[in-house]
Design a protein that fits this description.
312 residues; globular; binds protoporphyrin IX containing FE
Length: 312
């Protein structure tokens, strides 16, 4: 257990921060204006600004972002937990953006564009997975020093993570339900629950490309979790019989399974890290804890892409 106590260097005076979530007004520049500025400064960086902010701070509201780290205990490890939790929320936001845009491109039959986007999405999942390297440095005793302060807060209440699960097709009315009382979050979750996932759009793309896909896979209650479908399996099997670079649907299948593989690794690392930190204690969110997390490690988003591996 860290017996030493944390020292929190003061970085920002929160009283001076504009807490609005709106983008702050700021001037734009051009190649020409940048050239002129660089000539005027003799090639040295700008260091004089008027007002009470600077353009770097304003572009991303950095002072606001860096005012939001306020651990609730004097347990040393809480700052690490707090920052990593926020970093992961941001990364899930970025991942969801890529997945949503890949979906838009698939709907337009722009498979090559979707492939470029999915390559980044996969890189992001791998990157997020590495967050467990840092989190698993938290010791059982270190975690105990701040765990009570979490109350019933739990990652399972992360609406950003739920968006990622839903866009990949792992729908759950029950887990969506947890956000019903949050008026600025619920409409987005409800919409995601009831909308086709990225994979539903990939399946529709297969149908548009002449594969015989069951009506049940093309028009269904989107809030239901995706269930393996024989016609989709047959379609992917046919596509995988031509595994060449020019076969865009084959490359799409590989891009999707790469994301599924790394999301599975993410879940696995969560489960193992949690096992290491809290053993078999119950979770803060009401679940049995590590046993519940172990259960979700077996989930696969795109079952047919896994099933066909056995058939080669
Ligand atoms: C390092 C300490 C951590 C521990 C001990 C831990 C423990 C747990 C446990 C026990 C659960 C099961 C639900 C429950 O709480 O009853 C859970 C779920 C979850 N946790 Fe963590 N967690 C940790 C860190 C994180 C972090 C930093 C995040 C990222 C924001 C996170 C995200 C999640 C998510 C998204 C779920 C739901 C999983 C799903 O729906 O499949 N956890 N966690």
């Amino acid at each position: 257990m860290p017996t030493y106590k944390p020292y929190f260097p003061q970085i920002v005076d929160p009283d001076g921060v504009d807490a609005s979530a709106a983008p702050r007004p700021m001037p734009t520049t051009t190649d020409m204006s940048r050239e002129k500025t660089s000539q005027a400064t003799g090639g040295e960086p700008l260091t004089e600004f008027s007002g009470t902010s600077n353009p770097y701070i304003d572009y991303q509201s950095i002072d606001l972002l860096l005012s939001l780290q306020h651990p609730r205990s004097d347990g040393y490890d809480e700052m690490c937990f707090f920052v990593m939790g926020q970093v992961k929320e941001l990364l899930f936001r970025g991942l969801h953006f890529e997945l949503a845009n890949a979906q838009v491109q698939l709907r337009k039959d722009e498979v090559e564009n979707a492939l470029v986007i999915l390559a980044r999405a996969k890189a992001m999942v791998e990157y997020i997975t590495r967050s467990w390297d840092v989190l698993s440095t938290i010791t059982p005793e270190g975690f105990n020093q701040f765990r009570d302060n979490l109350g019933t807060a739990s990652g399972q209440l992360s609406f950003m993570y739920r968006h990622v699960e839903f866009i990949l097709g792992n729908k759950s009315r029950k887990l969506a339900h947890a956000h019903r009382n949050v008026p600025h979050v619920w409409p987005g979750i409800e919409k995601a629950l009831n909308s086709p996932s990225l994979y539903d759009d990939a399946v529709a793309l297969l149908a548009r490309n002449g594969h015989a896909i069951d009506e049940r896979a093309l028009d269904r209650d989107w809030a239901e979790d995706y269930a393996e479908n024989d016609s989709v399996k047959t379609a992917w099997l046919g596509i995988y019989r031509q595994p060449d670079a020019g076969n865009l649907l084959y490359r799409l299948g590989e891009a999707l399974i790469g994301i599924d593989e790394h999301m599975s690794i993410y879940r696995w690392r969560h489960f193992i890290s949690v096992h290491r930190i809290i053993g078999y204690k119950p979770g803060t969110g009401g679940s049995a804890g590590v046993g519940w997390l172990e259960g979700v490690t077996s989930h696969r988003f795109f079952p047919e892409l896994w099933a066909i591996r056995t058939l080669f």
